[in-house]
């Protein structure tokens, strides 16, 4: 396998009863890129994500991450190897502050989960690091606010901060813009661009203008199969892609 491929699937297939939701998908994600998985409703995007993060076991096919076959690994193993899906760890504690939420994620990374009643000397460096992450995602002004009081878009930014606290090599983002207004979309878009500087991102996203502006590469799924692959200019001109979207 080429060295710059961080994640590759071969013949990835998932059947539910007699129905094939993902059908022989060969996906290759290049290291350091933003790669989008798009396609009409029911195309198999969510099932693919669930297969990649091992929430579902594939019926057939294999998944290789950093040269290692992870087809039979468990979700926690995948995270430990450096591939983290954002909502997976984004259980936001609404009554705790934004900063404390991020600090708990940092503590989790260190292995002392939920131990947030520790002494000040232990917590201070973690608090400082949490504040840096809170600042990095544009939430500095809200650091002491209970997380439950954040707007929807800012809560998603907090999810990204808690994901970043685990320092993943690869982030899987599940419709990061879903349900957002334009301002939030712009903020999260800038944030994704920023955090992509030193990691790989695979995202499922319905907002095609976001996909167009962020993605280096796009895989279009339809009826469980790869319909097209390339940059936005190429796939958006592909008649099969246009037909799949219009026909959906
Ligand atoms: P997308 O995310 O692209 O909208 P999904 O991966 O959610 O597509 O679904 C792909 C197809 O698989 C759909 O037809 C859906 O109904 C079906 N599907 C998804 N999960 C299950 C399941 N647990 N049992 C049966 N069918 C499922």
From TrEMBL:
InterPro entries noted in UniProt: AAA+_ATPase (IPR003593), ABC_AA/LPS_Transport (IPR051120), ABC_transporter-like_ATP-bd (IPR003439), BCA_ABC_TP_C (IPR032823), P-loop_NTPase (IPR027417)
Domain ABC transporter: 7-248
Nucleotide-binding among keywords: yes
Gene3D superfamilies recorded: P-loop containing nucleotide triphosphate hydrolases
GO MF term set: ATP binding
SUPFAM superfamilies documented for this protein: P-loop containing nucleoside triphosphate hydrolases (SSF52540)
Record key words, sorted: ATP-binding, Nucleotide-binding, Transport
PROSITE patterns named in the record: ABC_TRANSPORTER_2 (PS50893)
Pfam families xrefs: ABC_tran, BCA_ABC_TP_C
UniProt keyword Signal, yes or no: no
Protein name as catalogued: ABC transporter ATP-binding protein
